[in-house]
Amino acid sequence: RRVHGGDGTGTSVMIGATVAGSIEVVVGLLYPAYASFKCLKYGDSEELKQWLVFWIVNAGFICFAFFADFFLSWLPLYYEAKILFMLWIVLPQFQGGLFLYNNYFLTALEMHEQQIDDAMSHAHDTARDHVNQMMQTSKAALTSHANTIISQTGALVSSALQQPQNPRQLKEQ
Question: CA 12, CA 5: separation in Å to the nearest integer?
Fold first, then answer.
C-alpha cells in the first residue's frame, strides 16, 4: 500500500502482511533451521548454544506476535519493525536473541520451571488419555463395521450359492 512521504510525493511504500509473512518465514524459520542443521553437522558447542537460544526466543516471539498481529498490525511500519526485530534476534552479529534470553527468558523460565513442568506433564497425560479413548472408540467402531461387513458378505455368498449356477438351470426351473 502507498502512503504519502513527508514531501507529499507518495513514494514511500510499506510492505503488507503477505510480503512480511514471507520474509518472516525465510528470516525466522528457514534460515535458522538450515543454520541449525549446519551447526549440528559441523559446528561447535558455542554455535549450538546460540541456535538453541534463538529457538527459545523465537518461540516466545511467535507467541507474542500471534496476539500482537491482531492488536498492532494497523500501526504504520508494524511489519517492518517486526522484520527488523526478527533480524536482530536471528543474526549472530547483533546477539539480540542472546540478550533477550539472558535478561528476560532465562529468569522467567527458571522462576516458573516447576509450574511449566507440571503443566506440560498434565497436558501430556490429558493428551495421552484422550488419544487412548479415541483409539478405543475407533477400535470399537471399526470392529462393529467389520462384523457388519463380514455378516453381510456371508449373507450375499450364501444367497449366491443357493441360486442356480448357469442359464440352463434357470430354464429348467
Answer: 5
CB 87, CB 94: distance < 8 Å: yes
CB-neighbour burial class of residue 79 (10 A; exposed 0-12, middle 13-18, buried 19+): buried
Whole-angstrom distance, CA of residue 168 vs CA of residue 173: 9
Read off the C-alpha cell for 86: 526478527
The neighbouring-strand residues paired with 12 are: 3
> Grid coordinates representing 88?
536482530
SS3 call for 2: strand
Residue that the C-alpha cell 434357470 belongs to: 170
pLDDT digits (tens, 9 = 90+) for 6-54: 444 444 457 888 898 899 999 999 999 999 999 999 988 888 999 999 9
pTM above 0.90, yes or no: no
Report the C-alpha gap between 123 and 28 in whole angstroms: 27
As a whole number of angstroms, the distance between CA 158 and CA 146 comes to 18
